[in-house]
């Protein structure tokens, strides 16, 4: 018995080492950092212990801006992307020819480098001295005024931001929902059809309840993912997100850690823990809601 | 019932169904267009000549004089090739190490019995909920302390483990019936040989899936490499493209930048088209982006 | 190879950790399996028969007791050194290997001198495949075979290294009725041809009775009775064995012995000698009933099912522990279906009586 214990732990050793050094230890450290005041990375010294880092972060206008941006992104993109994914998936599962082709096309954004494609979005939306850009061309065509979506008004930037986020997260959601729809037992539909149930009723009374666990799963992971928004923002607006007024909480963490205003792991830790607290709370609320409506 | 009337009604339902079908196709095609258009635009812009691109106040939807000069420019103005090899090294090394670690751990959890297994597995599972953003701060400090900034080791080590893949593979390993293990034991197969000769071949689809997912993840990784490298010699493609945009030719030579974007995007798209089924299966089984 | 089990005991810790008591899966087994025989281990699920098999194969270590193969004590030998072949209910073929590769697998694990050359391996595999008649399927994968074929491959894989003991764990349970019959005969034939000592675990008494030289009836980890199938059927030692063997099952009644007579309800069924007075269980095999107009056993007739060769009479009796009883009589006897009553005489050798408390068999002599 002793020997087999030893052997089993030997198999686990690599995983334990990696996880210990790069996940468990950092987790403890990050909490410690967040309470160490006046950490100096050059001299590795600390003034004292307390909640100053949190208070600093919470009073930092950049952080508040980041929180605001993050919340707007979450509130807009999660429902829009989930709803759109549902519509597309239902559409997909109601047609037979070309379905595979559509599925393949819809999945493409998942396998592309978001940084790279973000640049394409940027030139599509950007208005420069030489050109108003593709999107503005479209707006002009319908009689609207050109807007600089990348360096213009806040709402315009937010619009591109949300649009790109939805574009990026949809493939995963469509995929999950189409496979959920495909796994609904066809006999339910046949039974309902024989009973003369209308299409809408079949959808709301059979399809939706059957796939609702998957929808909740998507909403929960969607919230978590949207709260961690960062790379998509960089792709569109560049690394200096504060200057663009488009920073997110994760962006703030990285900026504090490293970057133009960097070198403050304590502030970064405090901000990261605040984010974690927000995500945890929202996830718990989500779980409670989904549990309640599952009854 | 009157025969012609029922015929009429059938006709009407059929027509309504046809209209509905058409509407669905229009809707689906519209979204497909939105998905595909950026890709088209990126390829299109990359083959327009510099002067043609900048001369179009109203961008044209096609070009009659495609050119590859932007690609040459992209490869010569910045060390794009270098970014490529870096990313390749990073991806292969990280994925290989991840596979070794994951297979061994999943095997221990699914097949061996040892003291503390349940507790250890619970700890593993709870680690799945820890967001990367939380641990990246300490990892940054750790790697800096180890003097591993601007090195492949520094890039690779913290990116190796994925608790989720261990979980996925463990679940798959557990589906192999116990009897197979018993039969192998009676035949004198050692644990390690059983893992290599039986479990890995049987679970090959899952292993391929997690390999592909990890490759995608590595190829697209941006945040960690950005934190840990500021030497161009160690840039990965994501950082490279960002650098091009911030300080390189991206500011003025957009066609060249688009050429770089195409070059970076192509490998994964090719991989996807080859392993389409496997990737989509794998992702729907629980991969999330980021 | 003879197999001897001495005081073999296996205790497991309880699954529910709060309960300290251990679960006794196998309780003090003493049994000897003669060389070259096919033995059926028979019992309801959870009776410890699979655990016994695992102990013999070495996959589990006994808590107490010893196991001998011939004169060699193998109790502490790991499974790979015991020379056993194992066949499972779900075949347990390696799905990614072809039939040939599956059969070769055990040989490739052999080391040192025991390891045959490549040519020898192929020869052995071909031999084993021929024995179970799958030599034409060698390049297929398990998923391309029927259940019966898969089980043959599994048997070939178990036999290829010429094991000392062949262990079969419910080998027929996953097959459909027709294949089960076929494969059963096949196993019997293979066992005869190879002469390998074989232990066969099943919960299906008919299966065990039909192919075993010896059967071992188990319940709750304890051996109830061992013997030739017919002997065990004819002379069950207790109520459990009597009810477990036989289809349709034996009919059990509350009986009473008084004044040298066995009463079931009001009916004085039989005069007997040697059984103590008092309450007993009386059990009558379905074939123990004889239609008789003046027979002592008076039942309410429910229905008559004609099944060709036999007729099954379903009736009710107030002394019965079940709702109805079933008698099998030859189809030549006509039952008056218009009548509401039916009377039987009982064959003395098909009637057993058991102690009410211990459920042990009580011997008697019919008068």
What's the CATH class of the largest domain in chain C, please? Alpha Beta
Biggest beta sheet attributes of chain B: none
Helix proportion of chain B: over 70%
CATH topology annotation of the largest domain in chain B: MetI-like fold
Inertia-based shape of chain C: elongated
Structural class of chain C: alpha+beta
**What strand order characterises the main sheet of chain C?**
21-20-14-11-12-13-22
Radius of gyration of chain C, rounded? 25 Å
Notes on the structure:
The complex is a heterotrimer of chains A (295), B (290) and C (367). Chain A is an all-alpha fold. Helices cover 75% and strands 1% of the residues of chain A. Chain A has one domain (53-294): MetI-like fold (Orthogonal Bundle). Chain A has a two-stranded antiparallel sheet. In chain A, helix 3 packs parallel to helix 7 (154-182) and helix 3 runs antiparallel to helix 9. Chain A is globular, with a radius of gyration of 24 Å. With 290 residues, chain B is mainly α. Chain B has two domains: 3-69, no CATH class; 78-247, MetI-like fold (Orthogonal Bundle). Helix content of chain B is 75%, strand content 0%. Chain B is built from 15 helices and no strands. Chain B has helices spanning 3-47, 50-55, 69-77, 80-111, 117-127, 132-145, 152-156, 163-174, 178-186, 191-202, 204-220, 223-228, 237-246, 254-274, 276-284. In chain B, helix 1 (3-47) crosses helix 14, helix 3 (69-77) crosses helix 14 (254-274) and helix 4 (80-111) runs antiparallel to helix 11 (204-220). In chain C, strands 21-20-14-11-12-13-22 form a seven-stranded antiparallel β-sheet. In chain C, a hairpin with an 8-residue loop joins strand 17 and strand 18 (325-330). The relative contact order of chain C is 0.12. At the A-B interface, helix 1, helix 3, helix 4, helix 5 and helix 7 of A face helix 1, helix 4, helix 5, helix 6 and helix 11 of B.
Quickly describe the structure.
The complex is a heterotrimer of chains A (about 300), B (about 290) and C (about 375). Chain B has about 290 residues and is mainly α. Chain B has helices at about 5-45, 50-55, 70-75, 80-110, 115-125, 130-145, 150-155, 165-175, 180-185, 190-200, 205-220, 225-230, 235-245, 255-275, 275-285.
List keywords for this structure.
heterotrimer; B: 290 residues; mainly alpha; MetI-like fold; 2 domains; 15 helices; 75% helix; 0% strand; C: 367 residues; alpha+beta; Rossmann fold; seven-stranded antiparallel sheet; six-stranded mixed sheet; 8 helices; 23% helix
């Amino acid at each position: 018995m002793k020997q087999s214990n030893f052997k089993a732990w030997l198999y686990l050793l690599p995983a334990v080492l990696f996880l210990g050094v790069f996940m468990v230890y950092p987790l403890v450290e990050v909490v410690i950092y967040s309470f160490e005041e006046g950490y100096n990375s050059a001299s590795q010294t600390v003034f004292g212990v307390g909640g100053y880092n949190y208070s600093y972060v919470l009073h930092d206008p950049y952080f508040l801006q980041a929180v605001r941006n993050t919340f707007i992104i979450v509130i807009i993109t999660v429902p829009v992307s989930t709803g759109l994914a549902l519509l597309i998936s239902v559409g997909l599962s109601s047609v037979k020819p070309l379905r595979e082709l559509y599925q393949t096309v819809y999945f493409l954004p998942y396998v592309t480098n978001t940084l790279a494609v973000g640049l394409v979005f940027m030139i599509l939306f950007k208005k420069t001295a030489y050109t108003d850009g593709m999107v503005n061309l479209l707006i002009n065509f319908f009689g609207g005024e050109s807007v600089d979506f990348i360096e213009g008004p806040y709402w315009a930037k937010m619009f591109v931001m949300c649009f790109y986020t939805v574009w990026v997260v949809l493939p995963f959601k469509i995929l999950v929902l189409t496979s959920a729809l495909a796994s609904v037992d066809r006999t339910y539909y046949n039974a309902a059809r024989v009973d003369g149930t209308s299409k809408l009723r079949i959808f709301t009374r059979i399809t939706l309840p059957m796939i609702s666990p998957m929808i909740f799963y998507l909403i929960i992971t969607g919230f978590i993912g949207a709260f961690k928004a960062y790379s998509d923002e960089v792709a569109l607006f560049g690394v200096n997100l504060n200057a663009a007024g488009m920073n997110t909480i994760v962006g703030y963490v990285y900026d504090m850690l490293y970057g133009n205003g960097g070198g403050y792991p304590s502030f970064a830790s405090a901000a990261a823990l605040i984010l974690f607290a927000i995500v945890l709370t929202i996830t718990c609320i989500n779980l409670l809601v989904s549990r309640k409506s599952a009854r | 019932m009157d025969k012609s009337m029922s015929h009429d009604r059938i006709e009407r339902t059929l027509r309504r169904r046809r209209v509905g079908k058409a509407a669905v196709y229009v809707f689906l095609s519209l979204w497909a267009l939105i998905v595909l258009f950026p890709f088209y635009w990126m390829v299109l812009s990359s083959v327009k000549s510099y002067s043609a691109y900048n001369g179009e106040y109203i961008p044209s939807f096609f070009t009659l004089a495609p050119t590859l000069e932007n690609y040459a420019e992209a490869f010569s103005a910045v060390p794009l090739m270098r970014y490529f090899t870096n990313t390749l090294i990073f991806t292969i090394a990280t994925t290989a190490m991840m596979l070794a670690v994951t297979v061994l751990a999943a095997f221990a959890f699914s097949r061996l019995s040892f003291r503390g297994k349940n507790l250890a597995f619970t700890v593993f599972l709870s680690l799945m909920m820890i967001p990367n953003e939380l641990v990246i701060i300490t990892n940054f400090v750790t790697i800096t302390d180890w003097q591993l900034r601007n090195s492949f080791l520094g890039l690779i080590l913290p990116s190796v483990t994925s608790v989720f893949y261990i979980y996925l593979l463990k679940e798959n390993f557990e589906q192999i019936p116990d009897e197979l293990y018993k039969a192998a034991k009676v035949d004198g197969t050692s644990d390690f040989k059983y893992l290599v000769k039986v479990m890995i071949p049987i679970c090959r689809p899952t292993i391929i899936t997690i390999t592909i997912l990890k490759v995608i993840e590595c190829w697209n990784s941006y945040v960690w490499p950005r934190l840990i490298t500021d030497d161009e010699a160690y840039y990965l493609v994501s950082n490279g493209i960002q650098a091009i945009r911030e300080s390189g030719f991206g500011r003025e030579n957009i066609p060249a930048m688009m050429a770089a974007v195409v070059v970076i995007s192509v490998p994964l798209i090719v991989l996807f088209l080859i392993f389409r089924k496997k990737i989509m299966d794998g992702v729907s089984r629980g991969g999330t982006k980021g | 190879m003879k197999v001897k089990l001495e005081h073999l005991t296996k205790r497991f810790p309880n699954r529910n950790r709060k309960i300290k008591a251990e679960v006794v899966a196998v309780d003090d087994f003493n049994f000897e399996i003669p060389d070259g025989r096919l033995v059926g281990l028979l019992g309801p699920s959870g009776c410890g028969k699979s655990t016994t098999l695992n102990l013999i194969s070495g996959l589990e270590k006994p808590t107490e007791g010893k196991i001998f193969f011939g004169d060699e004590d193998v109790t502490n030998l790991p499974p790979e050194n015991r020379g056993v072949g194992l066949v499972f209910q779900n075949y347990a073929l390696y799905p990614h290997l072809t039939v040939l590769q599956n059969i070769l697998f055990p040989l490739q694990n052999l080391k040192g001198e025991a390891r045959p050359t490549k040519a020898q391996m192929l020869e052995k595999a071909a031999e084993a495949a021929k024995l179970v008649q799958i030599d034409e399927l060698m390049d297929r994968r398990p998923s391309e075979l029927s259940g019966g074929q898969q089980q043959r491959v599994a048997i070939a894989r178990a036999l290829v290294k010429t094991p000392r003991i062949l262990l079969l764990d419910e080998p027929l349970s996953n097959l459909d009725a027709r294949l089960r019959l076929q494969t059963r005969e096949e196993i019997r034939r293979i066992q005869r041809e190879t002469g390998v000592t074989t232990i066969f675990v099943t919960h299906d008494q008919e299966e065990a009775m039909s192919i075993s030289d010896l059967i071992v009836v188990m319940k709750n980890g304890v051996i109830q009775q061992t013997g030739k199938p017919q002997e065990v059927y004819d002379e069950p030692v207790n109520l459990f064995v009597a009810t477990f063997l036989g289809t349709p099952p034996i009919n059990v009644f509350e009986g009473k012995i008084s004044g040298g007579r066995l009463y079931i309800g009001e009916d004085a069924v039989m005069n007997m000698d040697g059984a103590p007075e008092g309450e007993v269980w009386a059990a009558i095999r379905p074939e123990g009933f004889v239609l008789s107009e003046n027979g002592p056993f008076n039942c309410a007739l429910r229905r008559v099912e004609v099944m060709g060769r036999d007729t099954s009479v379903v009736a009710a009796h107030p002394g019965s522990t079940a709702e109805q009883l079933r008698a099998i009589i030859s189809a030549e006897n006509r039952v008056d279906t218009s009548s509401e009553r039916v009377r039987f005489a009982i064959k003395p050798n098909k009637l057993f009586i058991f102690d009410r408390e211990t459920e042990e068999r009580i011997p008697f002599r019919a008068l």
